Amino acid sequence: xxxxxxxxxxxxxxxRVTVNRPKVLNALNAQTIGELECAFGQLRxxxxxxxxxxxxxxxxxxxxGADINELxxxxxxxxxxxxxxxxxxxxxxxxxxxPSVAMINGFALGGGCELALACTLRTASSAAxxxxxxxxxxxxxxxxxxQRLARVAGVGVAREWVLTGDMFSADQAHEAGVVNRVxxxxxxxxxxxxxxxxxxxxxxxxxxxxxxxxxRGINMSQADGEALETDMFGLAATTDDMREGLTAFLExxxxxxxxx
Length: 260
Hints:
Blueprint: E1 6-11, E2 14-19, H1 30-45, E3 51-56, E4 61-63, H2 68-71, H3 76-94, E5 100-104, E6 107-109, H4 111-118, E7 121-125, E8 129-131, H5 145-153, H6 155-164, E9 167-169, H7 170-176, E10 181-183, H8 188-200, H9 204-217, H10 222-236, H11 240-250
Parallel strand pairs: 2-3, 3-5, 4-6, 5-7, 6-8, 7-10
Antiparallel strand pairs: 1-2, 8-9
Helix pairs in contact: 1-3, 4-5, 5-6, 9-10
């Protein structure tokens, strides 16, 4: 599929997806949502990709939200279908089995904040602003924001962000647990690259199993979550990567994980 609104680059184990509509602050229209879902599926199936990086073009916005012009024309059933399509696209990112990093280089509002929340980890420029302002439009987040924010940062933070519709600084988002690392604008690329490099150095199957244990276990009792953890631990122990990791440790060298 040829993309018009996003850029997809694959190099050195990283699949980089850039929302490329800087003239409208990278707003998410229906076409862009469809392209993102397609790109996430391609990166999931590309064995050369171990980490996915998501960002926005330009220095003003990661993604400033949904396309308001499209939303204003929707009838109720159409609006429900639009929300379902956005949720499916972001779920394709969240569930691809590979770690993803949102590099928030500017405004991440509404659907943009929801896209970032669908990533495994989030870095942000200190100049970035995040929020879920849908209630100021008489709406509520529709691309999974009410659910993911509560899981990422807790119900109290989710209520404050969703119900006030306020914007929050990168530092405030970091304090709330929404953003993992904050960098000066000129250091964002380098700082995020170091995080990505760290992920690339780990066993890819171990990362996938660990992500499953966390995301599935959070909805279980402690006992059931621990049972899931033992299952994932056992699966990891069947892999060549586990043997390579232990051997490399004993031989005092860096492991060469192959994802097997």
